[in-house]
Design brief:
This protein has a single domain, classed as 3-Layer(aba) Sandwich (Rossmann fold). It is built from seven helices and 14 strands. Strands 7-12-10-8-13 form a five-stranded mixed beta barrel. The protein has a two-stranded antiparallel sheet with strand order 5-6. Strand 2 and strand 3 form a beta hairpin. Helix 2 packs parallel to helix 6.
């Protein structure tokens, strides 16, 4: 018999929707595109042939519809792996938990979840305006300190820990091979560092000087099995780790809008993001 999940652990709204996302199972497609910015949801759904559902709560805005006959959802997440944890847990609950009985369903459903995000390059030869798929992600946030140990190689985790002299071991997880192999060659493949913040955790200095000197240079010089670390952002490792633990297929795509070694920002960032959106919809829908 399946375990009864207490109402305090799986919280529902008065209308029966799941607490943070404010969605019911019928509002969700099995293919989900995610964006950080709520305003970017409409930039994706404008390419749908039809929109059947719109919902929002806090930073979570959702549109579900159809494109070329395929049912698809796009939703915003806000920033950071703390929001990713909420998102992934509640998406999983929508398909794998009976919300009426608060019990886990006997058969498991796997979602396809594709992040459409922006990112900064830490390699001078990865230019602004390019598109990158995160093949591997390393999280220097502490989310996975609270979850079971991830299976697979942690070579990058140990190397980053030594390089940055961290008091905890970062975590490493990978993209879905099935989703990754569908991408055209215009997408670079890379190793992504997921940071717990935008400024000092990514080596930026405004008025406060980061504790870690030459962070970008130190990380950019690392190499494992011929691969180098390519970019910073704030969610991908959380997506990949939660996807691995919950058995969902996940891929993070990045529009490179900043090059940190050269100090350049993409003056056509909106066009780069739109190009990424259109390319992803063409591949997966």
């Amino acid at each position: 018999m399946s375990r009864q999940i207490p109402e305090s652990e799986l919280i529902l709204n008065a209308d029966g929707s799941i607490y943070h996302l404010h969605l019911k199972p019928e509002n969700l497609a099995s293919l989900v595109f995610t964006v950080g910015d709520p305003d970017r949801v409409a930039l994706v759904s404008k390419y749908f042939d039809q929109i059947d559902f719109k919902g929002n709560k806090r930073e979570f805005v959702t549109h579900t519809g159809r494109l070329r006959g395929k049912r698809v959802t796009v939703m915003s997440t806000g920033m950071g792996t703390d929001n990713v944890e909420i998102l992934m847990t509640e998406l999983d609950s929508l398909v794998n938990v009976d919300l009426k009985t608060h019990t886990v369903k006997p058969s498991e459903t796997s979602l396809e979840i594709i992040r459409l995000g922006t990112s900064g390059s830490m390699q001078a030869d990865l230019p602004v305006g390019s598109l990158l798929a995160s093949e591997i992600a390393v999280g220097v946030d502490t989310l996975m300190q609270f979850y079971p140990k991830l299976e697979g190689s942690q070579d990058w985790s140990r190397l980053v820990q030594r390089t940055l002299d961290l008091t905890f071991l970062p975590y490493q997880a990978s993209a879905s091979p099935e989703l990754l192999q569908k991408l055209p060659n215009e997408f670079f493949r890379g190793v992504t560092l997921t940071a717990p913040g935008f400024y000092a955790p990514q080596g930026r200095e405004i008025r406060l000087k980061p504790k870690m000197d030459n962070m970008i240079e130190r990380l950019a010089s690392l190499e494992v099995s011929g691969l180098k670390m390519t970019n910073f952002e704030m969610e991908t490792a959380g997506y990949y780790a939660m996807g691995q633990l919950l058995n969902h297929r996940v891929l993070s795509l990045n529009a490179i809008v900043a090059n940190r070694p050269t100090g350049e920002f993409d003056k056509k960032a909106e066009k780069t993001v739109d190009h990424m959106i259109r390319a992803a919809l063409e591949v997966y829908c």
